[in-house]
Structure formats: structure tokens, C-alpha cells
Amino acid sequence: MAPGAVTPAEAATPAPAKAVPVAVNPAQAALDASIARFVAANPKSGELHELATSSMPGGNTRTQLHASPFPMCMRSGKDYQVTSEDGVTYTDFVGELTAAVFGHSHPLIIESMIKALTTVGINLGATIAQEHVHAAAMCERFSLDRIRFTNCGTEANLHALAGARAFTGKRKVVVFSGGYHGGVLMFSGGEPAVNNVDRDDFIVAKFNDIESAQAAIRQEGVAAVLIEGMQGGPGAVPGKPEFLKAIEAAAKEAGVVFILDEVMTSRVAPGGLAELHGLKPDMKSFGKYLGGGLAFGAFGGRADIMATYDPRPSSTSTTFLTHHGTFNNNTLAMYVGHVGLTQIYTPEACTEFNAMGVKWLSDLAEVTKGTKMCFTGVGTVLGSHFTAEGLQTIERETPEDWTLKELFWFEMMEDNFWITRRGSIALCMGTPESELQRFVGCVEAFLKRHASLVSL
Ligand SMILES: Cc1ncc(COP(=O)(O)O)c(C=O)c1O
């Protein structure tokens, strides 16, 4: 037997325990305790998750919603609240990742949905007049020459890219590290995700870094630059206005199509984030609340670029891009989305709603001063962050303290606030000011309770 080797019997016998003190990470200990309380308080969600694993891998069909030890299972929603299968009601700060602008039971949304169902019917397999009505309203609101509808934001971006490629005759697309443009267009890890489409056709530049963006846009063969004005993935990280302007200028100079992904941000101002920063993108993509809470997407912009989709014969082109999709013009989204945009989220309502978010963000900045925590965001879309240095500006590359982030998530649920695990928040209209202030108080109490973990 080789010197130093152990026999199987020796290996199986544990060495006598020595009294070596095990270092306990206090943040991890607090998190473990909060997870134990979560498990005890939500047995039904745990059971349902177990059940779901027998038909779906990991019991999941939307990665964003997976959580360990198990995700909270929601049973219903009303106005600005959601209620879990365990019978607990929460103030909904997830806001369906920005799609639930109207809350969960707005009377006008319900009324228009019933009206469309009873007077129009579910999808007619034909062009409907309402398509143009919603298209015209969106063109006017978001300064577009032409628009087309899709089933979701992902598709909207894919079609916008196809349009830009057909228009320029080039293939490459500049995107940004941390960017998210849909389930097959993700750059959250700093490079194209494994399941992305056209992985080799992307150049990933650094968000909020003008030089990196300009160098990428000026490369040979670039058709388009696709960017979110505020990155949702890293937690509502706003693009600096001068950075976004520089991209617009570089794209114009290089003849590259500038596509602003407004899927999340079209709600931050009446004309979207483009209006907020005075940007004039060549194309924009949309989704979320603009279908009235139903599955929806749209892309639009300059008439000459959108003409690549025009199926009518023309003097300049005999070919056009096809744009199929059973539910592109689905009756419900066309009617309900239109009511949502023109009767509920009017320019006035949108301005007032986002002003409330701006004030709330400043209240949160006040109570997080001198701690590792900060909130970022635009309007009513926010992200919470914990950094060792107490940074106020976050980028995808910024190292964050995920133990504190998780602890915050679990403990805010105990205070009846439903936020995303990654710490992002999207308000629903009609959330009472008293709930916003209760949250500020709960954040303050959390920071006091864990002062030894979160103070600078
Ligand atoms: C900025 C952005 N673009 C695109 C998408 C994709 O939209 P959808 O989930 O409707 O495909 C999302 C979804 O969260 C998004 O936030």
C-alpha cells in the first residue's frame, strides 16, 4: 500500500471531531433563517411546486419565475395586489415585469375584453378594422411612420432586426452587455446566451461606455444597433442620456439602423424613453402593457425601413420580408390594448404616474443613505441593489451582494410586498401612496434590523 494511502475501512471511519470553531457568515445565517420561515409559512406553494415537477422540468415554464427552495405560487390578482395559494395578499411590486401597468382587474380592461369577446369574437382569420385603429394610435403616440404587430417583445425585436438587415444588406448587430431583448436574444452574461439565435452575428459592447459603443458601431458589416434605454436585467440600470445620444449619432454617421427596445420603457413617459431623452431612433420595439395585459408585441419606425415588409409590388423592389403569426392581429389584444393606451394610460395619466415613481425613488434614496443598499430606475420601474461600497450607480459588471439581495426579498415578502427575486419593481397604476410609504418604512426597518450587515 502506498505511503499515506488510507484503507477503505479507515476512509469510512470519520476522524474524531476536533473542537474547531466553524466560521458562520452572519448574512448567510440571516438568509437561512428567513428561508426556513418562508418554507414554514408557504406549504401549499411548496406542495404545488413538487407536483409541477412531474410535468415540467424543474416545475417551471418561465425561468424568470424559478426560485429555490420553491417559487411562491400565486392564486389571483386584484387591482394592485396579488394573493398566493397560501392565502397571503401582497402589494404587487413585480407588476408582471412592467406589463401590469393597469393592475389586475381594471374595470375598463375587463369591460373591453368582454365586449370584444361578445361582439367581435376570438380571432377571425382575416384582417380586422381595429388593427389599423390600434396601429394609428401607437404610431401617433410613439412617433412612428409604420408599425406591425407580433405576439411578444422577443418577436418584435427579431422582426425589427430582420427589417434592418434587409434594408442595409448587412448582418451584424451591436448589442450591449447586460442587455435583454427576449428569450432568444439575451446578453445578460456579457455575451450571446447559448440558446440565442444568430449567435455569431452580434458584437457585444459595454453599456454606458461611449467609446466601446462607437468602436462597435463603426465596424464593417453592421446593420443595426439594438439597445434598451434602461437595462432591465441588471435591475433597472438607466442608460446615461449622453451615452444614448452618442449611440444615435454614431449610428447615423455609420448608416447603421438605431433600434430602441422600448418593450419595458415605453411606459416611462407618454412617448416612451425616447421622448424622455429626446431620441429619434430609426426603429422601436414594444410589448408588455400595450396589449392591455394580453400577449403582445410590435415593431415600427421609419417608413423606408418598414417598407421592407410591404407585400405590394413596387417599382423599386419585387421582394419583401414575410411576417407570419397566427395571433399577430388577435382580436382581444387589438381592442383591449387600444383601450388601455387611449383611455387608461393617457399621456396625462402616464406623466402623473411616473412623477409618483420619481418622488418615491428620492424617498428611498433618503432612507438608504449610508448603507450598502441603493435603488436605481426611471419613473415607476426600479431596481434595488446591495454593494460593499454603497455605490449609487450600478452597471451589469458591478459586483453585488446576492446574499443581502435574497435576504431582502424573503423579508419583504414577510412584510407583504411581492418584488422580483433580483430586486426589480414595476408599479401598477392605482397603488396607494400609503403602500409606497409603508414600503419606505419597511426598507428603513430592514436596514436598521440588519445594521451590522448593511452599514458602510
Ligand atoms: C427590454 C425587453 N425586450 C424584450 C423583451 C421580450 O418580451 P417578451 O417577453 O414579450 O417576449 C423583454 C421582456 O421582458 C424586455 O424586457
TrEMBL record:
Keyword set includes Phosphoprotein: no
Family the UniProt entry places it in: Belongs to the class-III pyridoxal-phosphate-dependent aminotransferase family.
Alphabetic keyword roster: Pyridoxal phosphate
Keyword Lyase tagged: no
Organism from which the protein derives: Ophiostoma piceae (strain UAMH 11346) (Sap stain fungus)
Cofactor(s) needed: pyridoxal 5'-phosphate
Gene3D superfamilies: Aspartate Aminotransferase, domain 1 (3.90.1150.10), Type I PLP-dependent aspartate aminotransferase-like (Major domain) (3.40.640.10)
SUPFAM superfamilies xrefs: PLP-dependent transferases
Protein name (record): Glutamate-1-semialdehyde
InterPro entries in the cross-refs: Aminotrans_3, PyrdxlP-dep_Trfase, PyrdxlP-dep_Trfase_major, PyrdxlP-dep_Trfase_small
Pfam families (UniProt xref): Aminotran_3 (PF00202)
Lineage of the organism: Eukaryota, Fungi, Dikarya, Ascomycota, Pezizomycotina
An example molecular function term from Gene Ontology annotations: pyridoxal phosphate binding
